[in-house]
């Protein structure tokens, strides 16, 4: 609660009106009111009903309390940030698979559980680490299940340079991957056992980390080597996977964020629910309900009644949540949110123009993403990414997408040069055979295919680049990993 503050503190002036109902009630209930001087004194005492105690729940008290609560709600109390629409709201996860020779009997069962885990997370970013006597990052967090499947099939004990069960080394490698991701992630060790000799090193690796650690036990143990990590036993159904997903989400949601560029989440609408119990007594007989003093939590559609109480941005947010991105874009006054709506509606030109109105690192990064969605839009996107990096040098997503844009531009220029050379050669040697090589540079559709599963706010992952590289140099994924791990294990 140290982050508690008010987004619209001037609404607290409404508290000055809170005592007004009590003052009016006091005047109204003064002894005899205005009847003295009209009714004879010896008759007035007989006419007034003063027997019994006065009700403790009076309309004036309720009205004063409602005004006070309403003032606080309108002031916009906030203590949490709301996450960027271009950042996934699912917890990042890194799975460390035990490839020791002792784990070989349970290896296929562990791989099946990893596939179930990736499927249950529905496209959330998942990374992969392999460990035995050493630990190696196989694949950075990605949302492409096919890429994970490619590398998962290639993992076997023979690709590891040294045998062992170094859970501490796996934790250190996984935490380096997770530290490069926003928010709090979760490390999942998939192993049949963790020896107790790893306990001290594992505790040291996890000390001070914002990330959580869990163990998916594919064997009977022991698991004394992972102090502080929750151990979830493998089940024949998906109950174990569901528990892991739920615990990762809880950890992600509960972890605080330290990004100062994120918007504050207005808690006023939730506090307005306190008005409900204060309004219910007005339905009692004799309370004289003068007006409806609370608003419905949601209107069925943003019609005239909703417009009375919601700003255009609030109405647009409601429409955006319901899938009407085009309608939301017409209502948003905030250029960043208008850019988000136009992006989701497929109007990338309009989205880029909206993001250009804000000179912040995030807005320029989002502008670059929108420009990249156009055919051959990299020439315009690169300056946007450059501006984002100028405003925020430690912006890995902007740097990654800038490298992608430069690579696409270089590929296009090389293809253009090759095509021009081929045309010149054909003019000089018109009879040199009928074989022709298609050097047509990639069009808009090919450009989209070259960037699989591209999501705004995420650069091309290292794993995807590795997959593209393997396709160029040839060889099997298992041989590729064996050579890479051996090179990394060299002192």
TrEMBL record:
Keywords: Membrane, Transmembrane, Transmembrane helix
Region (Disordered): 416-467
Pfam family, one: VWA_2
Domain VWFA as annotated: residue spans: 93-190
SUPFAM superfamilies recorded: TPR-like (SSF48452), vWA-like (SSF53300)
TM stretches of this protein: 6-24, 59-79
InterPro entries recorded: TPR-like_helical_dom_sf (IPR011990), UPF0353/GerABKA_families (IPR050768), VWF_A (IPR002035), vWFA_dom_sf (IPR036465)
Signal peptide range: none
Keyword Transmembrane helix: yes
PANTHER family documented for this protein: SPORE GERMINATION PROTEIN, VWFA DOMAIN-CONTAINING PROTEIN
Protein name: VWA domain-containing protein
Organism of derivation: Roseococcus pinisoli
